[in-house]
Records
---
Amino acid sequence: MLPMSSSVRRFLLTKAKTYVRTVTTSKPATSFDDDQIKQNYDIIIAGGGMVGCTLACAIGKNSLLSHLKVLLLEGSPQQKYELKPEYSNRVVALNQNTKSLMNSLEIWQHIEKARVQPVRHMQVWDASSNALISFNSADIMDDDVAYIVENDLLLHAVNKELTSPDLKNVNIVYGAKISGYELSKHEALTRNLIKMNNGDTYSCKLLIGADGANSAVRNAMGVQYLSWNYDHMGVVATLHLAEETENTTAWQRWLPTGPVALLPLDSKRSSLVWSTTVDHAKQLLQLPEEQFVDALNDALWKQYPHSSAVEACTSWFGSCLKSIGLPDGAERQLPPSVKSIVSASRAAFPLGFGHSTRYVAPGVALVGDAAHRVHPLAGQGVNLGFGDVKDLTEFLADAIYTGLDITHHSWLERYESSRQRHNVPTQIAVDALYRLYTVDLPPVVLVRSLGTQLTNALQPIKKLIMSHATT
Ligand SMILES: Cc1cc2nc3c(=O)[nH]c(=O)nc-3n(C[C@H](O)[C@H](O)[C@H](O)COP(=O)(O)OP(=O)(O)OC[C@H]3O[C@@H](n4cnc5c(N)ncnc54)[C@H](O)[C@@H]3O)c2cc1C
């Protein structure tokens, strides 16, 4: 052994004491005794909606993470799924990235076996002018623009994989009533406690909040949450169309009160998402079904007053585009007429914006609507959540691969910055679109109409929009 000077010895001793102090004080102070803890897990996911269940499945199937003990806590009782002849009124438009994720987790096969409708065209048009934008999958991408899937079918397909005998490391508790969280504030040794109403307590190294827009995990983290309500509701219903068609087009018309959208389900049926003021939404829910159908056909077809100045400018701009060989937007498909709605399929949901300034804290991460909430006008909400699932799973696996713990702050922070780089611009763009299109002043209508015409004429911009929306 080499001789050590007393100053070096003193220095090392001080360092060692500091280290010991750091380790001992990093043990979380807790109001629960260890013998009260029902079970220790590596990861607990609070919330078994579409995002939480998919995350549990992704972690369970990842070869670098499959040794971890995972618990999924879902507040609702387990739902028994049955494929009914009539479609559910809750559907989502899934993008190509989500389809790839679902394929990689062997979930997509169950959806395809049941039912899914591809979207190959999209037409978005303004009721206050003649401006229109259309997307054709054959022109701008090699594959379909999106896929319409019922929420309950998607959840069923995820659960089929999640409960398969091959997936041994994930436990699920349905009807879980969580009464509180005690989060570790220490980075070096995280242990979070989850207290249940029935007196049980679970502990875990990493707690993941997938508990939706009113996330209790986010509240327990004490992070800043920027949010507002749009004072709009999304009225949904399942529609029977007047005529049978191939029905692979998603239609969206911007009305002064908000967008009305039809998403294709099959050759004769579409799903409605009609975003409108709270009072109007309530009225729509009260109307007899035939009158509701009339109101909807009006929303899709009625001529709204156009400003003559806006009309003159947009037709001049259209002819300029045409003169240089670009599409002027005059060519348009006619939307379908609605014949009837599926009885009792109407419902309305409040719409809002939410952004958690932090997605991570020591030993905690947020995914899905718990971290971000957007207006459904661009069909992005759950797709952003599935992007979180993909990235978080990869970063946790990277942490293990590099010999670090799943709670290591550098990997959790990489997850946060990677997702916020994608999610925040998307949220801002969706919010800006909402604000731009719910104003009916002629100068604003003019600016957005010219912007729409220009975007529609320039294929590279359309490709750029699509590529952001699908990643
Ligand atoms: C009208 C409408 C149309 C939409 N259309 C689209 C679309 O076309 N495309 C798209 O991408 N997105 C769409 N969205 C958004 C999409 O529905 C949401 O982004 C998605 O549901 C979020 O999923 P999530 O799993 O993060 O949260 P949630 O669906 O809110 O799930 C949270 C889960 O956590 C559980 N939970 C909550 N608290 C607790 C607790 N304390 N303990 C245990 N469990 C708890 C809940 O029971 C629930 O199961 C739409 C939304 C609306 C309102």
---
Amino acid sequence: MTDKTPVTILGLGAMGTALATALIEAGHPTTVWNRSPEKARPLVERGATRAATVADAAAASPLVIACLLDHEVVDALLGPAADVLSGRDLVNLTNGTPEHARTAAAWAAGHGIAYVDGGIMATPPLIGDPAAAFVLYSGSRAAFDRHRETLGALGGARFLGEEPGLAALYDLALLSAMYGMASGVRHAQAMVGDERAEAFSAEYLAPWLQAMAGPIAMGAAGDDSDSPLGMQAIGLANIVEGARGEGTPMSLLTHMLTPMRDIVAAGYDDLLPPLIDEIAQA
Ligand SMILES: NC(=O)c1ccc[n+]([C@@H]2O[C@H](COP(=O)([O-])OP(=O)(O)OC[C@H]3O[C@@H](n4cnc5c(N)ncnc54)[C@H](OP(=O)(O)O)[C@@H]3O)[C@@H](O)[C@H]2O)c1
């Protein structure tokens, strides 16, 4: 016997499997359901119980966690199980928009389900390591407080507030920054070329990006005294000209050129060298 809260996981893709594994390792009686049942086998071997239906899975635990492909799949699976979910706590860790979260919270409230929306800021191998993974939550504070410790088994648990869309908003904003960084990384690697890319990434690119996290933490407020805009514009022009000169594909620079177009539109064009002006207007 254990005093750990029983938990149900709906969805055993890459992420759902990692969540279930972390809960099993933390000693929680864990029930799992997946559309393709064979994915449950390794988890059952580690102590999980496989449920045959979503309703059976939901009935097994006071805390039900959904980690599915998208909002449509969540709706299609949970809608018919609303009666069973009633009176339970539902944590939806499926990626979605703030509006998806608000709609789901309203649906849940209408069925007596305490709803928490969430955004997982980690890849599956990081799940279970609170130093590396964190999960954003918003919605029912009572449900979050009931399961704070259990959710902590997945990664650092950060509650943003009772507005259900907040976790999705922060999740998407963080992902937007990640994808912007990723396109910059791809462009940087393309600039140095395939032969140098691996050593360049390990020795220079990763440490450089880590160092740049410091200034990012200071926020977006407009003080550019350390790095004046005019100076940055010249640097950007040199990136564009240098990449073009070395034959690097230009398409990955969209993440830099689009904001620069906005800066021009906002009237800072007198600070910008002609090359940037020309590109930003294109
Ligand atoms: N993987 C990551 O790095 C990561 C990181 C952060 C957040 N997330 C989020 O976690 C969620 C799950 O991602 P994942 O990586 O686990 O994706 P995944 O490996 O593609 O798994 C998708 C899951 O959804 C199920 N599914 C898809 N269509 C379905 C349908 N029509 N009916 C029933 N079940 C259906 C799949 O079932 P089958 O197994 O039967 O196909 C599987 O359980 C997503 O919202 C994702 O954004 C993932």
---
Amino acid sequence: MPQSEYDLVIIGSGLAGYTLAREFRKLDTTARLLIISRDDGVFYSKPMLSNALAGNKTPDQLVMKPVEKMREELAADIWLETDITSIDSQAHQLVSSQGEVKYGQLVLGLGAAPRQLPLQGEAADQVISVNDLTAYRTFRQQLEGKQQITVIGPGLVGCEFANDLLRSGHQVQVVGPDSYPLSLLLPEAIGQRMQKVLAEKGFEWYLARTVDRIDRQDGGLKLTLSDATELQSDFVLSAAGLVPNIELAQAAGLKVNRGIEVDRRLATSAPDIYALGDCAEVDGLWLPYVMPIMNAARALAKTLASEPTDLVYPPMPVVVKTPDFPLVISPPPKAAGDGQWQIESDDSGLRALFVGTDERLLGFVLTEEKVKEKQSLTKQLPNVLDSAPSP
Ligand SMILES: Cc1cc2nc3c(=O)[nH]c(=O)nc-3n(C[C@H](O)[C@H](O)[C@H](O)COP(=O)(O)OP(=O)(O)OC[C@H]3O[C@@H](n4cnc5c(N)ncnc54)[C@H](O)[C@@H]3O)c2cc1C
């Protein structure tokens, strides 16, 4: 088997892998850099997958840069459709489907995979999840000519897809065990308002229940829910959450929890192996969003270029792409401790402030016209993660 040798190897060509490579190249133009990816390596904006329909964007229009351009800009070798079989952290070596690679430093940007639901029924395999551009192409092809769409999962991504489908002329049903949308991120009063406003726009909600079976019926699909409700549907999209890709790290003996465990230097438990993005849990925090990746990539690039740097997460509000219910969320950090939501509402929307026992603002949620207050409130928030080293 051929053996190659690189100073830095990055596994993954998603936002995490490519942003890190770009930041690293700003600091080091000569290191031998290899990016290995399981997919086709095109650079695209994943957040756009859940609002491309109404914006009339085809999957091809979501491609920001082809892989040839990435190779040139990053002065990197990029191996595509390549799987990693194993990592030997002591020998600083990995085995891939294209051969063995010796690395100086290794970065895991492996992302996360859609949660698979335990569905019964002859058509259970018809369900599709969209977490990359390839799956999005399939989604768009299969959506052709379909009218009644069921989205499983009333979380952030599920609600975004449902709103996009609604705005592009489909009928949408949203099903999930939560008692209100975005229940992991929103206080109940806001979730209920979101549910009400989106119902007025056309969302059909089937909350506090799960999909148990999917069968074929009359050329379409019949969904049976846990409370025996039956729904007719033409197409089912599952957005039931993501599970970080930790298997490769686990098999290599690295410490994992929900994600691959890293400290504030993005270092795993093995020497010279780092992780960032949706696969990584930074000092106990798993934040599968764009802003944490951008901040992590900048800090890690410096560390890899011989300037050890602790990651600092500033406040990073998430703008939810539900245009029929504008929403911005800056969840209180888990370590924030005690506090409570103070919620005010008027005709222009809701403002929920999470205030700590010392009266400091720790998080917020803004809806509708109140989203305009995002910047001024963000300035008042503390960092999500400060540079103090992990205990
Ligand atoms: C529909 C949708 C909308 C979103 N909208 C927003 C938003 O509005 N705002 C926001 O902040 N966040 C949003 N997010 C989240 C954000 O897009 C992700 O956090 C981010 O794109 C994750 O990037 P990543 O590089 O960590 O993972 P990925 O993009 O999943 O990349 C992982 C890479 O690893 C490769 N890989 C995995 N395993 C292996 C292996 N064994 N060998 C080789 N290669 C491997 C894959 O091929 C891929 O290239 C959204 C997510 C989705 C799904």
